[in-house]
Design goal:
Elements lengths: L1 H31 L9 H19 L8 H11 L2 H20 L10 H43 L10 H18 L13 H8 L5
Helix pairs in contact: 1-4, 1-5, 2-3, 2-4, 3-5, 4-5
Length: 208
């Protein structure tokens, strides 16, 4: 009796934790990565088809193949948006729990407690892994986009939007090395307008 109670409480703890995890990852994804209505990408379509194929094959033919869902979800976490991965993984786990309720799949054991424990342990571990990787990739994407914005701001003039000296010198160096490598000549053209200061003084720098 003590062992059965212990299994029951562990299963209950895992079930509650899994429920909170699935709700939290969708909520957090909506907050960090709002819905953007775009045409579904080829990668998203292939990922959904692959997850569905593995799920159906694992439920009806080869139960052990269901464990391949985790590697597929991990790969998705590197390629797709945070909200997309959270939604697909949550739907997958709900479908897995539903199928196990109807005694399908690899998690059906001799007792209900053992079935619940195996199912919740697998889905909970998968949910934490996938959400953690997705969140990490989201943070890395934000850092990359922020770096690109700072680089763009540092290398372009605020008023005209044209590249400045910080962007021009590396480009000139690159062209020089390429000319040496290929044996081609190149030239740099400098335009200057005489007495341009008079325009700025008369009409203002914005006009100039």
């Amino acid at each position: 009796l003590t062992h059965q109670l212990e299994e029951f409480y562990i299963s209950l703890l895992l079930a509650d934790s899994l429920g909170m995890m699935m709700v939290y990852q969708v909520y957090n994804s909506l907050k960090l990565d709002p819905i953007q209505f775009k045409k579904p990408s080829i990668g998203l379509c292939l990922a959904m088809v692959l997850v569905g194929f593995i799920f159906l094959l694992g439920m009806w033919r080869y139960p052990a193949i269901i464990y391949l869902i985790l590697p597929v979800l991990v790969i998705m976490s590197f390629e797709l948006r945070l909200l997309t991965v959270a939604s697909i993984s949550t739907l997958t786990f709900i479908s897995l729990i539903t199928a196990t309720h109807f005694e399908l799949g690899p998690f059906v054991a001799m007792t209900d407690q053992a079935t619940a424990f195996e199912l919740m342990a697998f889905t909970f571990a998968c949910a934490i892994t996938v959400f953690g990787l997705s969140l990490q990739q989201y943070q890395m994407r934000l850092a990359k986009e922020s770096g690109e914005r700072w680089k763009l701001a540092a290398e372009h003039d605020v008023l005209t939007g044209l590249p400045n000296r910080r962007a021009f010198m590396p480009a000139l160096t690159k062209e020089h090395h390429r000319s040496l490598r290929l044996g081609h000549t190149y030239c740099a053209v400098i335009w200057d307008i005489d007495d341009f200061k008079a325009i700025n003084d008369t009409y203002g720098h914005d006009f100039g």
